From TrEMBL:
<feature type="binding site">
    <location>
        <position position="108"/>
    </location>
    <ligand>
        <name>(6R)-10-formyltetrahydrofolate</name>
    </ligand>
</feature>
<feature type="binding site">
    <location>
        <position position="66"/>
    </location>
    <ligand>
        <name>(6R)-10-formyltetrahydrofolate</name>
    </ligand>
</feature>
<comment type="function">
    <text>Catalyzes the transfer of a formyl group from 10-formyltetrahydrofolate to 5-phospho-ribosyl-glycinamide (GAR), producing 5-phospho-ribosyl-N-formylglycinamide (FGAR) and tetrahydrofolate.</text>
</comment>
<dbReference type="InterPro" id="IPR004607">
    <property type="entry name" value="GART"/>
</dbReference>
<comment type="pathway">
    <text>Purine metabolism; IMP biosynthesis via de novo pathway; N(2)-formyl-N(1)-(5-phospho-D-ribosyl)glycinamide from N(1)-(5-phospho-D-ribosyl)glycinamide (10-formyl THF route): step 1/1.</text>
</comment>
<comment type="similarity">
    <text>Belongs to the GART family.</text>
</comment>
<dbReference type="InterPro" id="IPR036477">
    <property type="entry name" value="Formyl_transf_N_sf"/>
</dbReference>
<feature type="binding site">
    <location>
        <begin position="12"/>
        <end position="14"/>
    </location>
    <ligand>
        <name>N(1)-(5-phospho-beta-D-ribosyl)glycinamide</name>
    </ligand>
</feature>
<feature type="domain" description="Formyl transferase N-terminal">
    <location>
        <begin position="3"/>
        <end position="183"/>
    </location>
</feature>
<dbReference type="GO" id="GO:0004644">
    <property type="term" value="F:phosphoribosylglycinamide formyltransferase activity"/>
</dbReference>
<feature type="site" description="Raises pKa of active site His">
    <location>
        <position position="146"/>
    </location>
</feature>
<feature type="binding site">
    <location>
        <begin position="91"/>
        <end position="94"/>
    </location>
    <ligand>
        <name>(6R)-10-formyltetrahydrofolate</name>
    </ligand>
</feature>
<keyword id="KW-0658">Purine biosynthesis</keyword>
<dbReference type="InterPro" id="IPR002376">
    <property type="entry name" value="Formyl_transf_N"/>
</dbReference>
<dbReference type="Pfam" id="PF00551">
    <property type="entry name" value="Formyl_trans_N"/>
</dbReference>
<dbReference type="GO" id="GO:0005829">
    <property type="term" value="C:cytosol"/>
</dbReference>
<keyword id="KW-0808">Transferase</keyword>
Length: 188
């Protein structure tokens, strides 16, 4: 059984997608030790309760430095014997302490066809770009903003009359299929 930790900052729809795949038996050799979040009011916490999962809430503002913040996270990860970190809408750059402790064992999903539209509001950037296609990317995490080695991508058409919300829903649907598949391939 491979132990993973899932990091999320928002609604947690990718987190829930992964958890539902585990419950359905599609990721049989994976155990999620806890949800890690940096937002005390994030909806992902409610989703974690549905699965009776431990939640670690760790706000950067409660620490003197990012290094202290990450030391606390590493302490929890070590105690739980976590082998892989899965970022699912985690909105903080991972610092060097965690990167060094989990080299090539942190993956992220981002709602664009990287290297295009890194960082925040990738869907809005794609929608306003005039591009006809966008998508989602699963990648290894490095010290940059969505710059790590690409593992797999899937495309999504940008329709002429799309709203940001419509495009986001279609991309999320693709992410909810792609991320568990990639996790299965890489970790199992």
């Amino acid at each position: 059984m491979t132990k993973i930790a899932i990091f999320a900052s928002g609604s947690g729809s990718n987190f829930e997608s992964i958890m539902s795949q585990i419950e359905a038996g599609h990721l049989p050799n994976i155990e999620v030790t806890a949800l890690y979040t940096d937002q005390v009011n994030a909806y992902c916490i409610e989703r974690a309760r549905k699965y009776h999962l431990d939640v670690h809430i760790n706000e950067l503002k409660n620490f003197d430095s990012k290094a202290d913040y990450e030391r606390k996270i590493i302490e929890w990860l070590t105690t739980e014997k976590v082998e892989w970190i899965i970022l699912a809408g985690y909105m903080k750059l991972i610092g060097e302490n965690i990167l060094n402790a989990y080299q090539k064992r942190i993956i992220n999903i981002h709602p664009s066809l990287l290297p295009k539209y890194r960082g925040k509001d990738a869907i809005g950037q794609a929608l306003n770009s005039g591009d006809k296609i966008t998508g989602t990317t699963v990648h290894f995490v490095d010290s940059g903003m969505d710059t790590g080695e690409i593992i797999e991508q899937r495309t999504c058409e940008i329709k002429p009359d799309d709203t940001k919300e419509q495009l986001e829903e279609r991309i999320k649907a693709i992410e909810h299929e792609l991320y568990p598949e990639v996790i299965s391939k890489i970790i199992q």
